[in-house]
Structures are given as structure tokens and as C-alpha cells.
Amino acid sequence: MIRVLLVEQTRLVRGAFAALLSREDDIEVVAEADGNGDVVARALGCRPDVAVIGVDSREGEEVAVRGELRARLPECRMLLMMASTTPERLRRLLDLHAAGVISSNAPPDRLVHGVRKLVRGQRFVDPEFALAALDAGANPLTPREVEVLRLTAEGTPTREIAERLCLSAATVRNHLSAITRKTGGRSRIDAVRIATESGWV
């Protein structure tokens, strides 16, 4: 039997997913959680093969407490469910040791298929998300430029950005000029919009 821990904040949605998975002869939902800080503890208690975690409410319990689940229970693989994503967010979640990502709007059999693939040691990325990532242009920004742009998007003044990133104000301004040029924006605000819509930040 494939042992599944199901984590979803909304009880009605969680119940629907539990019923769906429990219909399968080879899958057993051994525990459920609402994602209020108890994911790692519940997983250690029931030792599932797969943790199916709803991401949108609490960013997948910060992807199972930033790797703690994987470190303490390496045999448990994480399948993250979300309504939508961007290519950049998808890469970030996969980099945080998620073994799979699925749309919460996917057909029911896709969730079952994803769980089974993870148990076989494979990765699973929802085809809709994979196509969106392929269609998106490559991110032209460097990691440092992404950091600067994220702080700019939050309304952080240039001098404060410089202090937080241990840069000079002139270097921050240079980064912002490069960001505006690379994104094709007319201004910093336009650059933030373009980068956000493209999934680069």
C-alpha cells in the first residue's frame, strides 16, 4: 500500500481529496493535517510514502519547513498542489526538494498518477505547469538583480536596499538600470510588472 499524508487547510477540499485517493486499491490516506505547523510532526508519526501538501494557503507549510521533512524522513516524497504558479516559483519549489507539483484543478486521475510516479522514484510536474514553463522566456536577470527587484517591488528605498544587501547605493542604481534595460520596461515600476508577469520574480 502507498501511505499518504494529506495536508490541506480547507477541510472540505481535504475531505474530497482523501475520498478520491482512498478509492484506489493501492493507496491509503494514513493521516490528514490542516497545515497549521504540524506537517513534520504528523509525518514523523505516520511515516507516509508521499505527503500531498496544498501550497496556496501556507506555501506548502514553507515546503515542509524548508527541508526539515526531507532531512528527517528522506523516504517521504512531497507532492505539492496549487491552483497556479509561475516558472520561477515552480523552479523554486522543485529546488526546495518537492518531488512533484500538481494543479489543484487537474483531473482526479492525475493526482493518483502523480502519487504513483513519486513512489516509483520519479518526479511529477503537472503538464499544464510544464507547458507554461516551456513557453515562458528564460529569465534574463541575475540572482542579485532578482533580489534588488523584489525589494523594489515591496517599495523599499534605494538606500535601504543597499544596506540590506550590503551594496552601495550607486551599485543598486546600476542594478535597477540593468533590470529596466533587460526587461524592456519604461521605468522601474514597469520593470517590476514585466518581471512579475513573466515569472522572473
Describe the protein:
53% of the residues lie in helices and 15% in strands. It is of the alpha/beta class and 201 residues long. It has 2 domains: 133 residues, Response regulator (Rossmann fold, 3-Layer(aba) Sandwich), CATH 3.40.50.2300; 56 residues, Arc Repressor Mutant, subunit A (Orthogonal Bundle), CATH 1.10.10.10. A 6-stranded parallel beta sheet has the order 2-1-3-4-5-6, with helices on both faces. α7 packs across α10. The model has no long low-confidence stretch (mean pLDDT 85). One of its GO terms (molecular function) is DNA binding. InterPro entries: CheY-like_superfamily, Sig_transdc_resp-reg_C-effctor, Sig_transdc_resp-reg_receiver, Tscrpt_reg_LuxR_C, WalR-like. One of its GO terms (biological process) is regulation of DNA-templated transcription.
Q: What is the average of the pLDDT values?
A: 85
Question: Architecture of the largest domain, CATH level 2?
Answer: 3-Layer(aba) Sandwich
**Total DSSP helices:** 10
Please compute the radius of gyration using only Cα atoms: 20 Å
CATH topology (fold) name of the largest domain: Rossmann fold
| Stretches with pLDDT under 50, minimum 5 residues | none
In helices, the fraction of residues equals 40-55%
Using DSSP, what is the number of strands?
6
CATH class of the largest domain: Alpha Beta
**Structural domain tally:** 2
Distance between the termini: 40 Å
Give the full name of the CATH homologous superfamily of the largest domain: Response regulator
Structural class based on helices, strands and sheet pairing: alpha/beta
Helix/strand order, N-terminal first: EHEHEHEHEHEHHHHH
Main sheet attributes: strand count, strand direction, barrel closure = 6 strands, parallel
Instruction: Name the strands of the widest sheet in spatial order.
Output: 2-1-3-4-5-6
